[in-house]
Design brief:
There is one protein chain. The protein has 219 residues and is mainly α. The protein has one domain. Helix content is 83%, strand content 0%. The protein has twelve helices and no strands. α3 runs parallel beside α7, α3 packs antiparallel against α9 and α3 runs antiparallel to α10.
Length: 219
C-alpha cells in the first residue's frame, strides 16, 4: 500500500489548487481570519472531492478484479507511466498557465461559506479525474492483497497525502501574510514574480516522478 502513497504524493502537486490558494492569500485583506477560514474550507472541500472519487474508482477497480491485477503487474502499466511523464514534460514546454481559470474561481471565495466547500469539492473531482497518478495509485491499492476494510480505510490516508502539498502551501501563505518582510515573505514574492518558471519546474517534477515510477516498475 505504501506504493500507492507514492502516486498520491505525485498527485499532490496540484498546481490549480495551489494557484487558487496563493491568489486567495493575495486577494483577502489581512486580519479577521478570513484567509484561514477560506483556505481551511477550500482544502476540506477538495479533500472530500478526492476521497469521494477515490472511493468510487476503488469500487470500480475492485469489481474488475483480475483485469486490474494483470494491468498493474504487466509492463503496460510502466509504459503508460513513462509515456504520461514524457507527454507532461512536452506539454509543459508549450507554456500557458491557469491564471484565467484561477481568476474565475476566485469570485465565490471572497467570503468563506458553504460555497467555498463546494468549490473545493469541484476542484478535487476535476483534479483527480484528470490525473493519471490518481488512477495509478488506486489501481495499485486495489491489487495490494489486503483486506477490503483496510483498503477502504486507507483512502483516508490516500486523500490526505494527495492534499499534503496544497495544505503546506496554505500554511506557508498564512505565515507570509503575517510576516511579509520575513525571509519566507521575500521568497514568496520572488516565486510570485516568477510564477511561470515555478509552474514549469513543478510540472517537470511531476513528469520526472512519473518516468521514475514507470522505470522502476519495468525493472
Amino acid at each position: 500500500m505504501l506504493h500507492a502513497v507514492q502516486f498520491a504524493f505525485v498527485d499532490s502537486i496540484n498546481l490549480l489548487l495551489i494557484g487558487v490558494i496563493v491568489a486567495v492569500g493575495v486577494m483577502l485583506p489581512r486580519g479577521g481570519g478570513r484567509y484561514a477560514k477560506t483556505a481551511a474550507l477550500l482544502i476540506a472541500g477538495d479533500w472530500c472531492g478526492v476521497a469521494a472519487l477515490a472511493f468510487l474508482m476503488l469500487v470500480v477497480f475492485d469489481g474488475l478484479g483480475d483485469v486490474v491485477q494483470s494491468f498493474v503487474e504487466g509492463p503496460i502499466f510502466g509504459i503508460l507511466l513513462i509515456a504520461t511523464g514524457v507527454v507532461t514534460g512536452l506539454l509543459a514546454l508549450r507554456g500557458g498557465d491557469n491564471s484565467g481559470l484561477v481568476n474565475r474561481i476566485l469570485e465565490p471565495l471572497k467570503t468563506p461559506s458553504a460555497t467555498t466547500v463546494l468549490v473545493g469539492f469541484a476542484l478535487g473531482i476535476i483534479q483527480s479525474a484528470t490525473s493519471v497518478p490518481f488512477y495509478g495509485g488506486l489501481a495499485v491499492l486495489s491489487t495490494a492483497g489486503v483486506d477490503v476494510a483496510v483498503r477502504y480505510a486507507f483512502l483516508v490516508l490516500y486523500a490526505t497525502v494527495a492534499l499534503s502539498l496544497p495544505a503546506l502551501c496554505a500554511f506557508a501563505v498564512g505565515w507570509v501574510r503575517r510576516a511579509p518582510d520575513s525571509p519566507a515573505g521575500r521568497v514568496f514574492d520572488v516565486a510570485r514574480e516568477n510564477s511561470g518558471k515555478v509552474s514549469l519546474g513543478a510540472t517537470w517534477a511531476v513528469a520526472l516522478l512519473l518516468i521514475a515510477l514507470g522505470t522502476v516498475h519495468m525493472m
